[in-house]
């Protein structure tokens, strides 16, 4: 769940995501590219709704993963892989954008402590992106193995993905909380955009983590 500081920033910003989030790629930019538009079978849609209901962000889960329904259908592994790839694509784009903003001094006019918090944020978000990519790669390997992998290997893959996604969430929270604690978001549009984007990233990471936990382990 997002911290109180980050949640407050989300509320005061209103429903529209700012420019930093608008600059992020669509889910189709991830390595798990959906097929051309198709009408997903009802079973896939119902499966997605049921699985998303197990997450903290059911609406965001459903909307971000529906384009992949023709791929995952009713597969827990393929659904978790889609979530992992969407998450990795998002946080990677945010990491790149935050680095660009910090490098250009886009947070000019903020206090020294606030600028330092943004620089620290760029570092922690970069680490989060790397961890998200590791989790996505692990889920891709599990998906590629299909039914040929034993239960112990499934457990190992799930454990690895859980560990990396959890660590990614920690880094995302560190970024958002660090910037919010300085009060920069109240005076700097850039700081506000950064926190908003990272809060969104944490939602997607939480969704991916919940869906990984839902992967059944064969006997």
Automatic annotation (TrEMBL):
Entry-linked InterPro entries: Invertase/methylesterase_inhib (IPR035513), Pectinesterase_inhib_dom (IPR006501), PME_Inhibitor (IPR051955)
The processes (GO biological process) annotated in the record are: plant-type cell wall modification
Q: Give a GO molecular function annotation for the protein.
A: enzyme inhibitor activity
Leader sequence residues: 1-23
Residue limits of the Pectinesterase inhibitor domain? Answer: 43-211
Spell out the protein name for this chain: Pectinesterase inhibitor domain-containing protein
Q: Which keywords does UniProt give here?
A: Signal
GO CC annotation, single: plant-type cell wall
Pfam families membership: PMEI
Q: Its domain of life?
A: Eukaryota
Q: Matching SMART domains, A to Z? A: PMEI
Taxon lineage: Eukaryota, Viridiplantae, Streptophyta, Embryophyta, Tracheophyta
């Amino acid at each position: 769940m997002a911290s109180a500081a980050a949640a407050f920033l989300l509320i005061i910003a209103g429903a529209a995501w700012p420019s930093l989030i608008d600059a992020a790629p669509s889910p189709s930019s991830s390595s798990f590219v959906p097929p051309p538009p198709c009408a997903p079978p009802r079973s896939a849609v119902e499966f997605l709704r049921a699985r998303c209901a197990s997450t903290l962000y059911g609406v965001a889960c459903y909307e971000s993963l529906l384009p992949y329904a023709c791929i995952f259908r009713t597969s827990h592994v393929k659904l978790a892989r889609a979530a992992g790839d969407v998450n990795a694509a998002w946080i990677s784009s945010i990491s790149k954008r935050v680095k660009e903003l910090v490098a250009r001094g886009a947070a000019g006019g903020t206090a020294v402590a606030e600028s330092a918090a943004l620089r620290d944020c760029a570092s922690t978000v970069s680490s989060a992106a790397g961890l998200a990519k590791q989790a996505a790669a692990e889920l891709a390997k599990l998906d590629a193995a299909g039914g040929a992998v034993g239960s112990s290997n499934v457990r190992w893959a799930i454990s690895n993905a859980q560990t990396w996604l959890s660590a990614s969430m920690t880094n995302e929270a560190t970024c958002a909380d660090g910037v919010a604690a300085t009060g920069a978001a109240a005076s700097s549009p850039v700081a506000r955009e950064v926190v908003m984007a990272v809060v969104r990233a944490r939602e997607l990471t939480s969704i991916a983590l919940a869906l990984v936990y839902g992967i059944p382990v064969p006997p």
